[in-house]
Amino acid sequence: MISRITSYDQYKTAYERSLYDADNFWAEVAAGYHWRKMWDRVHSGGFEKVDYKWFEGARLNITVNCLDRHLESFADKTAIIWEPNDPDEAGRRLSYRELHREVCKFSNVLKQLGVTKGDTVCIYMPMIPELAVAMLACARVGAIHSIVFGGFSAQSLSGRIQDAECKLLITADGFYRGDKAVHLKNMADEALQDCPSIKNVIIYRRSNAEISIMAGRDLFWDQLMASASDQHEAEIMDAEDPLFILYTSGSTGKPKGVVHTTAGYMVYVGYTFLNVFQYREHEVYWCTADIGWITGHSYVVYGPLLNGATTLMYEGIPAYPDWSRWWKIISKYSVDIFYTAPTAIRSFQAQGEEHLQGADLSSLRLLGSVGEPINEEAWEWYHRQIGKEHCPIVDTWWQTETGGILITSLGGVTPAKPSFATLPFPGIEPVIVDTNGVLQNDLVAEGNLCIRRSWPGQARTVYKDHDRFIKTYFTTYRGMYFTGDGCRRDDDGFYRITGRVDDVIKVSGHRIGTAEVESAINEHPDVVESAVVPIPHEIKGEAIIAFVICRGENEATDQARAMQQLEHEVIQTVSKTVGPIAKPEKVYMVSGLPKTRSGKIMRRILRKIAEGHPDQTGDISTLLNPEIVDEIKRMVAASMPAK
Ligand code: WT7
Fold first, then answer.
1. Residues enclosing ligand 1, CB less than 6 A?
2. What is the pLDDT of residues 606-615, one digit of tens each?
């Protein structure tokens, strides 16, 4: 079994050892897993050549560690509790034995369809147990899963399928988010119009919505499963074989297909889950993230299952049928550990405490936060109203690229501090640099956050584009992984993450690239150019503001209406191209954008104005078109609520 750190002193010892005796440290952690063949080398390579590897030479299958390994000791323990969107529909429980059986059967289905080791499979599904079954079956047969969040548009789905050249798509007819029907299969059909790599589509019937079927291509989950054998020998993988691709947004270009490999990811995610949440055998753990994000991959599915935990999956949204739903779920299943995002906490806070009445939250032992900085007020509310002042809160900082949690307290074991992620996890060596890359060695420091050495769960590459991987993360500061986040270290040595320092926006914890939104806006036929910037938002953390130059003159009388119409269309275009989560909060139609003499858009200036600090734009005299700044200031001021 994987080992647990149980005191602050033990953490300090483990942390020190993880740095000066790293190979032995990780070898001991890894010994807690099941290997078909042990590794030849714990770790090799590094950030200079970006060729780091972990547990090279080892052979294993991650699903043997998630499932088969637990069958001896607790086959009947619940692996997944599933709570449907509709509170009147019956929930489901899958024991480790049942989950293993489903995964074996679906592995045989995949095999039968010709899916083999190294193939890429796209999964576009609602939050139902079959999503976990599908991903685990991919891992079991050695196929690389690429899960696309159900809230992404057909176009986003299509781009991801094309980039990864997926052979198979696994989806559902549709599902309900609250009282809103989501037509997944229709979106998939639209996406597949230009995805020649897809040979088959497997459809799980969830909503019984009417769908169109393409004969020969489309197959039904239940029919395939009906005749599948439940015996399946897991494909044995090399340590560094890819496990999955997950697309994420950066400051430039299209989303990147971040690649995680098998052994290092498994060791890291399993070990962090156990230690950060201090999971104990009988506990029910609920992480509210969608499996379509890294949090769902690592801490709804892989991390909990590697530890034989009971993990809860909820299909719906927080406010359905009303704002008391989450708390009712916690009461219903006696949830011990609850892990969610600050944006959700702030929404609940805004709704008032009456929604908590009648819910029994006494089962809770530990709370977690992830996805964006948590402000002190939200932290305090979470601590008081949900944790009843006795549950430790772990503020976990990490990223899609890091595979697992890097900076955090260990629940109840190491100290916590509101709005601080606090201390690095064993094996993680964070450093703070200034914009020139100079290390800030004083205890109290502020700057950009980098990580100085590799850890097992680190992403290895961008799918089919290692150069982009190197360029994005390893060239800003030589020999270091650059996180894209700003941070501060206080006199306790605790880290506080202050937010992105690049062109990445965190809207309700969702990661959105400015370039992506701008290129979507520019698809509108009347748009000449656009720039988007984040502004602070009380609930969402950040919101997107767009500045758009349009072509064409309108009759003066109709101008206001025409603008309104255009604003609406621009928002719709983003929704359709990227997904509803990337919709701008507000669109300003401008006649120009502030640019440098070399033609670069000065987003910094737009951001200051949009934030309501028009006096902080700094020196604009060197701009190509300084006069535009006043126009934009006037326009934004006119639309701001009077103070
Ligand atoms: C970015 C990564 C990793 C889980 C989900 C997000 C921000 C994440 C925290 C935190 C402050 C945080 C950072 C990071 N972030 N957790 N506890 N405190 N900021 O993964 O979508 O890859 O986003 O989320 O800005 O770089 P992601």
1. 248, 294-295, 369-373, 395-400, 421, 483-485, 497, 499-500, 506, 511
2. 999 999 999 9
